Amino acid sequence: MDFMLAREFCAGLPGASADIKWGNVLVYSVGAKMFAVTGANQEDSQRFSFKVEDGRFLELTDRPGIVPAPYMARCKWVQVNDAGALDDAEAQALLRRSYELVFARLTKKLQRELSHD
Question: Hey, what domains does the chain have and what are their CATH numbers?
Fold first, then answer.
């Protein structure tokens, strides 16, 4: 998983926004709801966290280099700590799914507004 490519991918999703929170955390959101998180600076950007489906949580966290995301594991978020844990195609599919899971929980009105951007 190329972490810089993952950043570009998240930023390019429809209606996605990026901002810095908690001092040094780059947060990708859709409709003001987080779907992916990474470090804002070079040192911290070697990790990437995102939401996964309940059924994939245990499967992914059983892999070396992927752990339950600190503070967010109860919401079925994982953290990739090793770039070799996922290839770019699988990482992009998981990031897109995270985006879709969050998008689906937005109000229908907000979904329509973001779809027309």
Answer: 3-110 (3.90.1150.30)
